Amino acid sequence: MSAISLELADGRTISGSCDAQFTGVLAEFRRNFEERKEVGASVAITHNGRAVVDLWGGFADPAAAQPWTRDTVSIVYSCTKAATALCLHMLVDQGKVSYDTLVGDIWPAFATGGKEATTVGMMLGHTSPVPHVADPIRKGGLADWDYMTARVAAEPAHWEPGTRQGYHGVTYAWTVGQLVRLVSGMPLGQYFQDNVAGPLGLDFHIGLPESEERRVAPMIPADPAEVNFASAFFRTAMTQPGSLPNLFLTNLGGADFNSREIHAAEIGSANGITNARGLAGMYAPLANGGGTLLSADRVHRMGRVSAATHSDAVLCQPMRFAMGFMTSTDNRSSGADSLILGESAFGHVGMGGSVGIADPAQGLSLGYTMNRMGAGILVGDRGQSLIDAAYRAIGMTSDKSGAWR
């Protein structure tokens, strides 16, 4: 790869390295800063197991004029779900649990209130009946593992298990994370560190050590002027108190995701902290047969679409999920949010626009992280532009079918 050092017109810089084949990604990364209001960000790509893009730039903290450096990290919100799901798939691959296992056989307290028929596979695929908890979460509750697992276990079913798809935007931390803890016998963050991040050499944490706090770029909220308040999701969230979209946005116990308390907690749906290199590095084995993490058959199984609907019960738009991952979802014609990938690809977005993906058919993995949040509920134009450029670099010619080919 060639070394990159660019100065933008406003004095910010882009640094890192980029293979000549992927200069289109560099061009889009630069456009994000110049045209799409990027503040600070990183993008990384591997292709056939080789690093081909590793770029970072802008400000980690614009208030202090602190540059985004190679080792800057940020919270990646729901990209964390993929890391949590990966841990449970590894335990399945090891024969310690199966997708058809009843959750109540592992976690007896969960098997109440109409949730008795819930399986491990339903937990992974967002068809378990606990997309959120209805009663208010107490202040600081998200950071208290025992409190939240008790809340999830006690929540009555919102539908018959397996009969609806509803994004578990917050509760995934405990619906799936508690299964990892109970099956493995260790906390989720430790399991991920010992079995994924550590062996792969990833700067990726679910529960950030205090010694690393200084490297975290504070998140900048989305500009309200960019929010599509006419979308079904935001319209429902704003006009129907107690609805699932409303609970997803508002019932968080007052959590401040820029706080040390949240960074230190284990919230396997929402508080992973890493950079693009960490996301691309986690997905790289999955793009290349599983590596040391999983068997090739397991990668193929977990990346297949397991649930799809014209109206997700939480996101209020068409969605396609594999077990723990999003797959290519094309809502462009309706104006709803999209994530356009290759047909074999899977990954996950994070609130505000961060994203990580693997495409096993192309040997491609990609990660994108940033600090200025976008207003949509999927990847946004900054992240999608990088994905598109990566696919063009490897010879893909069209995404008009709803997936790159």
Short note summarizing the structure:
With 405 residues, the protein is an alpha+beta fold. Helices cover 30% and strands 15% of the residues. It has helices at 23-35, 79-93, 103-106, 120-124, 145-154, 172-175, 177-184, 188-200, 232-239, 244-250, 260-264, 276-283, 296-303, 380-393; strands spanning 2-7, 13-18, 40-47, 50-61, 66-67, 74-75, 273-274, 307-309, 319-321, 346-349, 355-359, 364-370.
Per CATH, the class reads: Alpha Beta
- Low-pLDDT stretches are none
> What is the CATH architecture descriptor?
3-Layer(aba) Sandwich
- SSE sequence, one letter per element: EEHEEEEHHHHHHHHHHEHHEEEEEH
- Total number of distinct structural domains: 1
Approximately what portion of the residues adopt beta-strand conformation?
A: 5-15%
Overall mean pLDDT stands at 97
Q: Strand count, sense and closure of the main sheet?
A: 8 strands, antiparallel
Overall shape: globular
Whole-angstrom Rg: 20 Å
Number of helices: 14
- Indicate the CATH topology: Beta-lactamase
Structural class: alpha+beta
- The CATH H-level superfamily is DD-peptidase/beta-lactamase superfamily
What is the rounded distance between the termini? 26 Å
Would you count the extended β strands for me?
A: 12
Query: How much helical structure, as a percent, in the residues?
Result: 25-40%
